[in-house]
Amino acid sequence: MTGVSGLTKRFGTNTVLDNIDLEIEDGERVVIIGPSGTGKSTLLRAINFLDHPDAGTITVGDLSVDAARASRRNILALRRRTAFVFQNYALFANKTARENITEALVTVQKRSRADAEARADEVLRETGLLDKADSYPAALSGGQQQRVGIGRAMALDADLMLFDEPTSALDPEWVGEVLDLMRRVAEQRQTMLIVTHEMQFAREIADRIVFMDGGRIVEQGPPSQIFDAPHDKRTRDFLRRVG
Ligand code: ADP
Ligand code: MG
């Protein structure tokens, strides 16, 4: 089991996450939607303490961490169980595609260089980027860079993959190939928590849609219910705006 309970995050007097409870089953694909500024990124970042929550419990696999009493060791253990795909790819500019993937395998997972490179090449093959293994990010298209970002996350074999608007920084021409790769990851029944504005994609791959507004979960359910028969006026208004 994975999820958060009572998760609260404030920036100054601004309560950005207000007592969020969210349980995710192993292999479940959960998509978070909601207006901008509503706390979606903060929720993902709080799960691995990129933003330190003020209160709540985070559980990933067999590890539960209480935000109020989290030690450095707890946080590192939590990060080892998660993999993050960033909106802006967050690749190391001075490392090749292969080196971007091996980096955490060697430094965080303490794998041997040979083992890390073998895993990187597997992932480069899966992402269709083996011929770009020695290219630096600047020589890759936006779509290829984000596929490296996703490959880097895949290589970690994490219990939970977190995607924060992975296509929203891309030129429209590159969105399709990145969504295709995410579909393939989803088919492997990888546990995924995804923030996206790609509603058609969300409808296709999500087991559950979570609609957030104002730092709270307003409603959640299967895609057909949220998209075709939302209960809450805020959900209806949001979907009308983005639809
Ligand atoms: P979303 O991803 O849904 O657009 P965010 O989680 O990025 O929303 O932001 C939620 C709120 O938290 C916004 O009001 C934003 O300004 C605020 N916020 C996010 N990060 C910080 C930060 N590091 N410092 C201060 N306020 C922040
Ligand atoms: Mg965001």
From TrEMBL:
Protein's UniProt keywords contain Amino-acid biosynthesis: no
Lineage, broadest ranks: Bacteria, Pseudomonadati, Pseudomonadota, Alphaproteobacteria, Hyphomicrobiales
InterPro entries: AAA+_ATPase, ABC_ATPase_HisP-typ, ABC_transporter-like_ATP-bd, ABC_transporter-like_CS, MetN_ABC_transporter-like, P-loop_NTPase
UniProt xrefs under PROSITE patterns: ABC_TRANSPORTER_1, ABC_TRANSPORTER_2
Listed SUPFAM superfamilies: P-loop containing nucleoside triphosphate hydrolases (SSF52540)
Name by which UniProt lists this protein: Amino acid ABC transporter ATP-binding protein (PAAT family)
Domain ABC transporter, first and last residues per copy: 2-239
Pfam family, one: ABC_tran
UniProt similarity note: Belongs to the ABC transporter superfamily.
GO molecular function, one term: ATP binding
PANTHER family associated with the record: AMINO ACID IMPORT ATP-BINDING PROTEIN, HISTIDINE TRANSPORT ATP-BINDING PROTEIN HISP
Spans through the membrane: none
Gene3D superfamilies: P-loop containing nucleotide triphosphate hydrolases (3.40.50.300)
Domain of life: Bacteria
Keyword entries, A-Z: ATP-binding, Nucleotide-binding, Transport
